[in-house]
Design goal:
Strands 1-2-6-3-7-17 form a six-stranded mixed beta sheet, sandwiched between helices. The radius of gyration is 23 Å and the shape is elongated. It is α+β, with helices and mostly antiparallel strands.
């Protein structure tokens, strides 16, 4: 047992307590009335970093949510590592669907349950735990960048990087915001799907109409929207938007029974799409109807609705461009709008996909560090979700090595009910980072 291993084991219980406290701050960046709690979350991150002895901690805002940049200057001749995570979280969904109160983290069977435990406050705590293993005196330069708006697409990230590029410059970036292959088995992510979404509204009438009087003659906007949205996929459920690109994933088998269990797919429900599971999840585009504004069933009347709004999102394959994909989505919606309904678009967002090369001396050291920390060699995976800062970091710091790692696993249910984190893997991830710093210092 190395000194770092023993130190991480000793500090892990306190780190879980810190994560529990951080989870209790409801930093939902997508809800305007939670702005004070996003600020409180940033303040708590600052407090924790100050407590560990960081000499330079600051909150930065460039027209968006508060992010934290903290710096431990590099010893003479040593490289600098930038550690990324985000402190904002997703909404909870139906609270009564959670086993415990989502912002009151609870440990069960070795997992810590609560909103943000895995995505991505756990990532920040892993960074913090690695620094504590060195008593706040890491053997290399360390910069922490803890973002506050990742869950809303990082709208001010490019500006933050541009205006604070000197503060964020590093030789190595470790982004702790992906997914391991399974609990206890680490992974490095080498491809990322991007994201693009848009709000679309259809209008067919000046005002609501009695369905008995006009039904069958006059199109209602809800029916028009349903018909329009049905054109987004083919008969197998695969994306049918023209102009979307695909690529090929790593040669890795995702067992069907495991995928069915992890997804919670109900008995008798089929998978959608074609090709291997990893291709479908990591390197092919996917389209999802994210939301629709509809009358509640309990309040329904026999009425033709004059307008209907929906939000549609696409996951963009590596090698494609998110903005081009967004335009392809909008063009598809315009082309397939039925019955001459009036179509308009509202809020939209786009984040590019990415390819993360894994080669060179730093990556070799990372493989060794993660393999030793977890006790098993890492695998290379793609990620179906987007991590917008990867391409931003690659563009701003082209000579740096970017590593995309994780504290989470497929059972973590990020964005879903009963989000959780494997506590042992929290320690493993922190140890891996500490070992990497130690190796880079040599």
């Amino acid at each position: 047992m190395t000194d770092l291993t023993a130190r991480i084991d000793q500090l892990l219980p306190a780190a879980v307590d810190d994560l529990t406290r951080l989870v209790s701050i409801q930093s939902i960046s997508s809800l305007p009335d939670h702005a004070d709690r996003v600020q409180a979350s940033a303040d708590e991150v600052v407090r924790m970093l100050t407590e560990v002895g960081c000499p330079d901690v600051r909150i930065v805002e460039e027209g968006g949510k508060p992010a934290v940049i903290a710096r431990f200057p590099a010893p003479e001749g040593k490289p600098t590592v930038c550690l990324y995570a985000h402190h904002d979280v997703q909404p909870t969904g139906p609270v009564d669907g959670w086993t415990n109160a989502p912002f009151e983290a609870e440990t069960r069977n070795g997992r810590l349950y609560g909103r943000g435990t895995a995505d991505d406050k756990g990532g920040f705590i892993a960074h913090l735990l690695a620094l504590r293993a060195f008593d706040g005196k890491p053997p290399v330069g360390v910069t922490l960048f803890i973002e506050g708006e990742e869950e809303i697409g990082s709208p001010s990230l490019a500006t933050i990087i541009e205006r604070h590029q000197e503060l964020l410059a590093a030789d190595v970036f470790v982004i702790m915001d992906s997914v391991n292959w399974e609990a206890g088995k680490p992974a490095f992510t080498t491809t990322l799907r991007g994201v693009a979404d848009v709000e679309v509204t259809l209008k067919t009438l000046e005002h609501p109409l009695h369905s008995g009087q006009f039904g069958g003659v006059v199109p209602d906007a809800v029916g028009a929207m349903i018909k329009l949205l049905s054109t987004l996929t083919d008969e197998n459920g695969a994306c049918a938007i023209e102009g979307m690109k695909s690529s090929q994933a790593a040669d890795l088998e995702y067992p069907e029974d495991r995928l069915r269990e992890e997804a919670g797919l109900l008995e008798g429900v089929d998978f959608i799409g074609s090709g291997s599971f990893v291709d479908r999840m990591w390197t092919k585009p996917a389209v999802t109807v994210l939301a629709m504004d509809l009358p509640e069933v309990a309040m329904a009347s026999n009425t033709l609705q004059p307008s209907c709004r929906a939000k549609v999102g696409i996951r963009v394959a590596p090698g494609d461009d998110a903005r081009s994909a967004l335009e392809a989505l909008k063009a598809h919606l315009v082309k397939h709008t039925p019955w001459g309904a009036q179509i308009s678009f509202g809020a939209e967002a786009a984040g590019n996909p990415g390819v993360i090369p894994f080669e060179g001396e730093v990556c070799e050291k990372a493989m060794a560090a993660w393999g030793k920390a977890f006790g098993v060699e890492p695998v290379f995976v793609g990620c179906g979700g987007s991590i917008p800062m990867v391409s931003d970091f690659q563009k701003a710091f082209p000579d740096a090595t970017v590593l995309v790692a994780a504290v989470t696993d497929p059972d973590s249910r990020m964005h879903g009910l009963d989000e959780s984190l494997d506590v042992a893997d929290l320690g493993h991830a922190a140890l891996a980072e500490a070992l990497l710093m130690e190796k880079l210092a040599r």
